[in-house]
Amino acid sequence: MDKKWIKWLIVLGCGFIIAIIPRPEGVTREAWTLLAIFVATIVGSIVQPMTGSAMVLLGVIATTVFSALKIDVALSGYADKYVWLVLAAFFISRAMIKTGLGHRIALIFIRLIGRKTIGLGYSLVFTDFLLASVIPSTGARAGGIILPIARSVSETYDSRPHDGTAGKLGTFLMNLLYQCEVILCATFLTGQASNMMIRSLVGQQTNIDMNYSAWFVAAIVPAAVSLLVIPQMIYRFFPPEIKETPNAVEFARKELKELGPLSRQQKILLGVFVVIVLLWVTSPFHEIDATVIALLGIAFLLITQVLDWSDVTNETHAWEVFIWYGGLVMMASELGKTNLPKLFAEGVAGQMKGWSWITALIVLALVYFYSHYGFASITAHVAAMFVPFLVVSIAIGAPAGLAVLVLTYFSNLSAGLTHYGTTPAPIYFGTGYVKQAQWWTIGLIASIINILIWSTVGLGWWKLLGWW
After folding, report:
1. Which of 140, 308, 309, 313 is the 20 to 30 Å CA partner of 373?
2. Confidence check: pLDDT of 251 > 70
3. What global pTM score does this model have?
4. How far apart are alpha carbons 126 and 145 in whole angstroms?
5. What are phi and psi of 175, to 5 degrees?
6. Which of 52, 74, 96 represents a domain boundary (last residue)?
7. Cα→Cα distances 393→137, 229, 366, 462, Å
8. Can you give the pLDDT at residue 443?
């Protein structure tokens, strides 16, 4: 039997099993049908008999065909302002690659601190840090800007994936860059696309607004500690053979010289980049919506011809994200409006009767974190499990702010476990520099360190900020 048909059988089988299970008392037929379609869509996003975007679109269509939702509700996700914020940010990432500004920023950092191998790694991480402040496309950041430079520098030192020289430099860089990538995903609201979904779901379940500045301020202290500790762990226990990289500085200097001064387009984009971030950070002091800020930035880039309309229409990944993101936001939101999360919370909370909320939250957080072994994307993980685990956490007595932050940041950090955890994972792993056993070993060690940091330094920082 063709593998694609096996995948379809798995998808349809999961949806059918949910559909035929007697629904709990008090649950409407429409809500139960929506759950069956949602489960099938999530499973489809994982096994992918079709692309993830196509699976979500089929799920959206199915909600109307099987009368779970009316058509205007089924399509409402595509009017969600956060979906458009993600779309606009993807267009900014296109401008960053098109103009070469991201490449230039990386070279500047390498020239400044790239003499030692660990400094070279940090220079690329600092570049990613700046880009993550406004670009949610981890694929664009990793595949379009960071990875090409990392590979070029590795090959400069004769470190290649398949001739026995990977351990000289390339293996170290790929491990370091990916493990730091998931920390950066957690650091910014724009760290990766699914964070907008988290913000939306949190807003629906609580009165907490995880806006850009709130997200960043709560994350920056534990993130800074993780970004300091994780590279040092990899450097000590999985060290590169080459410890100093003066040639990397010369490489960067030569590249920058060939690039010459900032072009007109780079200057405009840099100005737009700075203004957008400043307006997002200062959002508590003005009433301009984050999506409006991003769309105004895109409008200015179009008017000044930094981007042209073909750049917008040809940015296929942005439109793919728009399709699956809008559909999943809609389904997750509509499920949250039913009493299914409440029933799930009551059932789980009943099993934890007599537990302190601290113990219960620890168990729930660890289960949520390590369940990511079963997911091929942060989006699928968040869509399937975030709301139920948040509702349960609050039901057992955990402070809502603390529960939100733990699940929000664990959603991102857990992606470091595997070579398929989120979009950049197969990009870095696909270079061939790292064997799967080492990737998973480092992922497990890093997960333990990150959990300890964000559960101690993070909790103390959040207490100081008044989140719990």
Report:
1. 140
2. yes
3. 0.88
4. 12
5. -65, -45
6. 74
7. 30, 29, 12, 17
8. 97
CA gyration radius for the chain?
22
CA–CA dist 451, 443 (Å, integer): 12
Query: 116 in helix, strand or coil?
Result: strand
Instruction: Say how far apart CA 396 and CA 416 lie, in whole Å.
Output: 28
pLDDT in tens, 96-138: 889 999 899 999 999 999 999 999 999 999 999 999 999 888 8
Whether residue 86 sits in one domain with residue 58: no
Token pair listed for 262: 């900032």
**Rounded to 5 degrees, what are φ and ψ at 244?**
-125, 140
Identify which has the larger pLDDT, 339 or 69: 69
Counting the structural domains of the chain, the total is 2
The pLDDT value recorded for residue 169 is 96
pLDDT category at 353 given cuts 50, 70, 90 is confident
Instruction: Give the domain range for residue 131.
Output: 81-197+208-317
Find where tokens 């694609």 sit: 4
Closest by CA position to 134, among listed 197, 92, 183: 92
User: In this model, does residue 1 exceed pLDDT 60?
Assistant: no
Q: What is the pLDDT of residue 144?
A: 83
Same domain as 185, residue 44: no
Task: Tell me, yes or no, whether 120 and 178 share the same domain.
Answer: yes
Sequence-ordered strand ranges (E) for 55-194: none
The C-alpha angle with vertex 450 and arms to 445 and 452, in degrees rounded to 5, equals: 100
- CA 238 – CA 231 distance, rounded (Å): 10
State the Cα angle at 248 between 94 and 224, rounded to 5°. Answer: 65
Spatial distance between the Cα atoms of 41 and 39, rounded to a whole number of angstroms: 5
3-class DSSP state of 379: helix
Rounded to an integer, the average pLDDT of 48-76 is: 92
Contact in structure between 169 and 245 (CB atoms under 8 Å): yes
**Cα distance between residue 198 and residue 389, in whole Å:** 12
Asked if residue 162 and residue 55 are part of one domain, the reply reads no
What's the pLDDT band for 2 if we cut at 50, 70, 90? low
Structure tokens at 178: 């990916």
- Residue in 92, 84, 83, 79 with CA at minimum distance from that of residue 302: 92
Q: How far apart are CA 267 and CA 258, in angstroms?
A: 17
Same domain, 152 and 293: yes
- CA 118 to chain centroid, in Å, comes to 25
Please, which residues have CB within 8 angstroms of residue 179's CB and are 6 or more apart in sequence? 230, 231, 234, 416, 442, 443, 446
Q: What span, in angstroms and rounded, lies between the C-alpha atoms of 192 and 241?
A: 32
Q: What is the pLDDT of residues 201-240, one digit of tens each?
A: 999 999 999 999 999 999 999 999 999 999 999 999 999 9
CB of 196 closer than 8 Å to CB of 85: yes
Q: Please report which helix (H) or strand (E) contains residue 327, including its range.
A: helix 316-337
